[in-house]
From TrEMBL:
This protein's name: BURP domain-containing protein
Domain BURP residues, every copy: 69-286
Organism encoding this protein: Malus domestica
One Pfam family matching this protein: BURP
Alphabetically ordered keywords of this record: Signal
Length: 289
């Protein structure tokens, strides 16, 4: 089996962890870097270089990858803000397996020793830790009001989406698309049009997980969320069609969620919005015909 393990990066991984770290269940979040929970002070530990220019003083020492949070009042044409998008290179994505192939490989934390042998990763390697992290996250029970599923193939992802939306519901996918190959990770972008709200009575966000082949952590939370499509113009001329979500009820979030320190807010005090990285998929139902 030809498998590469190039796509996972600590930065997008850290982002995933924080995007998932919602809810009050006390679900533990771990970092690869130091084995601690991500708290606001720790996020710099995941720093991967490539940063420059932060705008305001409370963002000093901030991981550049945290430049994805904003509030609904920012959603207007002409708004300018620094945003981090990971490099757009399909060559670094892990291979998406067909369902038959994916189903022939065990996918459970109880199979960790076998899987490390299969992929030839030494037990203490970062790759082994990443595999362990992904399997652990995928084995967790959903928190209250959440539906979750780890998809190891496109077919299984579509099955989950169809089951959650109802078998007769049509649906579509939204992504963040860099309209040309991106070279800059962090730069100032201007909202070049009024952001467009996407009808989304329900939504399922699928985040890529660090793994030797493509694994998506898909989840859906029952709470007031609004989905947007935003056309962004970078200072260097790059254009991004970005998907973004605003979570209107943050009252149950962990007060240590990094979004609050980035935005200077508290749980329940104001909505939290964020852009989706370009390797995420957001599924929404289509209105019945
Ligand atoms: C990456 O850039 C190419 C153009 O170079 C574009 O066609 C593709 O949609 C982009 N991919 C993502 C995920 O943004
Ligand atoms: C964005 O623009 C502000 C001022 O317009 C500047 O201070 C800041 O360094 C810029 N940030 C980036 C990442 O270029």
């Amino acid at each position: 089996m030809r498998l590469s393990f190039v796509s996972w990066s600590l930065v997008s991984y850290a982002l995933l962890v924080l995007l998932n770290a919602q809810g009050s269940s006390g679900r533990k979040i771990i970092t690869l870097g130091n084995g601690k929970d991500i708290k606001k002070e720790d996020s710099i530990d995941l720093h991967q270089g490539g940063d420059d220019g932060r705008s305001s003083s409370h963002m000093d020492h901030m991981d550049p990858a945290l430049n994805v949070f904003f509030t609904p009042k920012d959603l207007k044409r002409g708004k300018k803000m620094p945003i981090y998008f990971s490099k757009n290179s399909s060559s670094t994505s892990p291979r998406l397996l067909a369902r038959e192939e994916a189903d022939s490989i065990p996918f459970s934390i109880s199979n960790l020793p076998y899987l490390l042998q299969l992929f030839s990763f030494p037990q203490d390697s970062t790759q082994a830790k990443a595999i362990e992290y992904t399997l652990t996250q995928c084995d967790l029970q959903p928190i209250k009001g959440e539906a979750k599923f780890c998809a190891t193939s496109l077919e299984s992802m579509l099955d989950f989406v169809a089951a959650l939306f109802g078998q007769n519901t049509q649906f579509k996918v939204l992504t963040t698309t860099q309209l040309k190959d991106s070279t800059t990770l962090l730069q100032n972008y201007t909202f070049s049009e009024a952001p467009k709200e996407i009808w989304a009575p329900k939504m399922i966000a699928c985040h890529t997980m660090p793994y030797p082949y493509a694994v998506f952590y898909c989840h859906s939370q029952e709470s007031e969320n609004r989905l947007y499509q935003v056309l962004l113009a970078g200072e260097n001329g790059e254009k991004v069609e970005a998907a973004a979500v605003c979570h209107f009820d943050t009252s149950q979030w962990d007060p240590d969620h990094v979004a609050f320190s980035v935005l200077g807010t508290q749980p329940g005090s104001s909505p939290v919005c964020h852009f989706f990285p370009s390797d995420n998929l957001v599924w929404v139902p289509l209105p019945a015909q």
